[in-house]
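Appendix C reproduces, verbatim, an entry submitted by the partner laboratory led by Prof. M.T., so that reviewers can inspect both the input and the predicted structure.
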Amino acid sequence: MATSSPPHDVFMSFRGPDTRRGFTKHLYAALTRARINTLIDDMHLEVGNMISPTLFNALHMSRMSVVIFSKDYASSSWCLHELVEIMECWKTEGKLVLPIFYDVDPSDIRNQKGRVADALERFSSRFKEQPQVVLKWRAALTQAANICGWDTRNKRLPDLIRDIVKSIQSKGLPTRLNISIYPIRYDICDGYLKLFLQAGSHEVVTVGICGPSQMGKTAMARVMYDQIIENFDGGCFLVDVGQRSDQPKYLVRLQETLLSEILSESNVKISDARMGVDLIAQNLCSKRVFIVLDNVDDLRQIYALVGDHKYFGPGSKIIITTRDVRLLELFGVDQFILAQGRPLPENVGAIWEPYQRSRCVVAGLKEYIETLNNQRREKLRYLRAILLQEPQKNVIQEKLITDLLEARGEGSASTTQRKKKQ
């Protein structure tokens, strides 16, 4: 199997002898023409009972899976192992699964009848010491076959392939837009999105994006929101939350907008912010949602809209963008991201400690802070050397540098000078 380093849009699972030279070949060609990055396991070798690490990683990094069920799909242990992993991504990460039933009755797959039943019986004998393996395969077949898909017996294949491609295109595939998280230069559409979806897949995860104005905070959040919202039960992107604070009952209006967009209801009415908090908790506690609070400038805004993890269902994700790093520190976000560009927050070093303990911290922040501090120390040492060369001049500057050095526990300029004379 040939794989490339970037994640794929589609992972295609099929039994090679059944469809490789026919339906699968034509579907793959159509997806390629449509510029949909598709991974096809064209070798499809069954080596042992486990999926290779390369294929496993490629499957988990793909945005969706297309499963082509053929009459003998279930006779391949490789296909069944693939299917178990595909359905695991479907359950825990919200990945899309699109089943295609190629010349086979969906109920045969769903209820394990006909050739499917015969194949599983043979595997039951083969895996007598590992009965749980076959049980997982049966569960995965049933789950996948219960998802709405396509039956090739009901339509001409060229028309069906055209419909499948259009359906995949409508799922909001990424635009491959690159936005950097300063200074580590993640590709938002690939590397970080994968981490973002996987982090706390059974928990609510909050992410803070901080930085000065015009540094890409909103753009970064928008790209993330647009490209993975389909993985959630609902979502809401509240723009310029802070700038609405001069409006009457602005927190209540934001709460109404939040509930209206996620629940798809236009008549949500809230009398006060306390009632809004209660309604958010009651209506969203079982939903996996994606919420963005953009340009927040007051802690009350955060608590009125997303104040407690228990308000939302497992796997929910929340992004808060702000210029005020204090708000993120006080609220206690799970992940902390510095927006692209300079200047960086003055106290970024001071807030590192609370976040380095989080398993969700974006890699590289600590190294950047250490580099920044080293550069500052080198500049101070250089200034001190200049002052020591002319001890009678620049008295004010010497005092300033001395104070800075003492604050960092590195001694004073005069102390260093005395040591040098000795």
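DSSP finds 18 helices and ten strands in the chain. Additional entries are available on request from the coordinating office.
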